[in-house]
Amino acid sequence: MSGRHGSSAPTVLSAEAPAFSCSSLVHVYRVAGTDVAALRGVDLVVQPGQRVALLGPSGSGKSTLLTIVAGIVRPSAGRAEIFGTDLSRASARSLHELRRSTLGLMLQGASTNLLLHETATGNILWALRGSPRGSAAVGREVLEAGGLSIDARPVGAMSPSEQQVVALAVAMAGLPRLLLADEPTSQLDDVARDRLLDVMVDVAAAQGTAILLVTHDETVAGRMQRMIHLRDGRVGEEETETGRYAVVGADGSIQLPEALRAAWPAGSLVSVESSGPDELRIRSADSAREPRSGLPGGSS
Length: 300
Ligand code: ADP
Ligand code: MG
Fold this sequence. Notes:
By secondary structure, this protein is an alpha/beta fold. The protein contains eight helices and 13 strands.
């Protein structure tokens, strides 16, 4: 893992670098002449070996963030790095290499990740061909947890829930340093979900795998170490063992609690007063809208 001096490529893998980091990350989709801002300044750091759940309402930007981390979509603006590799500057070739050697991908729609004419085991072996890392045994462990250890059917003949098990087995078998999963257990019943989560968490802990997964399922999120809530293309809140917190953005902004949003629409005036070194008091200007003496023209 030595730096290559004299190389013009700014992409040096560093053992110390976060698994993923982004700052002021923006993504705009252009569709038929209209711009849709899916990410509006996301700041997030995921350390190696850390397990992180991404939550948030539909349309909040979760899948967009995941496809950017996967190197599939280039961000419109801002910085995003995987283990020190800058995703907006990396060549197509180094992105491909990153996906092969470092990332495990399980994107939305399990079957898009799979060879449908191959068996489950065939998919694992195909994914591991020529791979420096990777363990077919880990793939089989996942298949077994999902009840598919001896199954000769092609994946195309399997149910959506079975395909989801295979997709997870393929992604885990590569022993990725960062596993990216979009709703990885959405098709599974609770029993299968819990068994697969056990394997996922065990393997990740043993291998030092970082996980970034999108889920709507509180049980799945609860197995991760951090829960990040996206809202309107930004990190709104993070839940830790001690509570649920708003997250200060790189620009110093924080989002209002959901419950206040209707009462305090965009453009509302608030007073922000420091009431101590660790405390801010935010009050709606409406609540203090009695006539104020001393203001020019304030009396009528
Ligand atoms: P989530 O996964 O949280 O539901 P997405 O990242 O899929 O959110 O979507 C965020 C926003 O970007 C939404 O407004 C969505 O309609 C839009 N969007 C997502 N993918 C595309 C795309 N391929 N083309 C255009 N707009 C998109
Ligand atoms: Mg999504």
